[in-house]
Amino acid sequence: MSNSEQRAGQFTRMESARRQTQHQLDLIDRQIMRRMITIIPQLGRRHSGYRRGKAPEAGAFLERYRANLAAITAERQPEIDALSRKLARQDAAIAALRARAGSDGTVVAATGPGGRTP
Q1: ∠ at Cα 35 (34, 40), nearest 5°?
Q2: What is the pTM of this model?
Q3: 7-16, 53-62, 91-100: which has the minimum mean pLDDT?
Q4: How far apart are CA 19 and CA 23, in angstroms?
Q5: Pair 66, 56: CB distance under 8 Å
Q6: Do 18 and 115 touch, CB atoms closer than 8 A?
Q7: Does residue 75 surpass a pLDDT of 50?
Q8: Contacts by 94-102 with C-beta closer than 8 Å and gap 24+?
Q9: What is the DSSP string of the chain?
Q10: 3-15 b/e with 16+ CB inside 10 Å = b?
Q11: How confident is the model over 28-43, as pLDDT tens digits?
Q12: 3: which of 34, 43, 88, 94 lies 20 to 30 Å off by Cα?
């Protein structure tokens, strides 16, 4: 097996690991959004009409939504931070491999976001 074949295999494995990490981050984001979607009906019920002649506060729903989103995100923040750091390291390693491959004269297929070739 030649050096360029080994490097191409390594590059493929690195990009696959990066896609997996990105998938995990996307999964967490979807889980947070799913939880928020289930909470939205409960947020809208408070002060849902005129009380003593006062109109409902216009920004109250948005404030409650943001507070709940912040709380739910804070629960998962350590996991999000760890995956984000891992993703940054993987991006740096892939960029370094591309740079090394370019300086050696071997060609490594460039890929775009999501690991797809442009």
Answers
A1: 100
A2: 0.72
A3: 53-62
A4: 6
A5: no
A6: yes
A7: yes
A8: 94/11, 94/14, 94/15, 94/18, 97/7, 97/10, 97/11, 97/14, 98/11, 100/7, 101/7, 101/11
A9: --HHHHHHHHHHHHHHHHHHHHHHHHHHHHHHHHHHHHHHHHHHHTT-S-BTTBPPPTTHHHHHHHHHHHHHHHHHHHHHHHHHHHHHHHHHHHHHHHHHHHHHT-------GGG---
A10: eeeebbeebeebb
A11: 999 999 999 999 888 8
A12: 88
Token pair of 2, please? 């030649």
Q: Which of 42, 67, 46 is nearest to 57 (CA)?
A: 46
Q: Which two tokens stand for residue 64?
A: 């409650």
CA distances from 41 to 35, 44, 62, 72 (A): 11, 5, 13, 16
What type of residue is 61? F
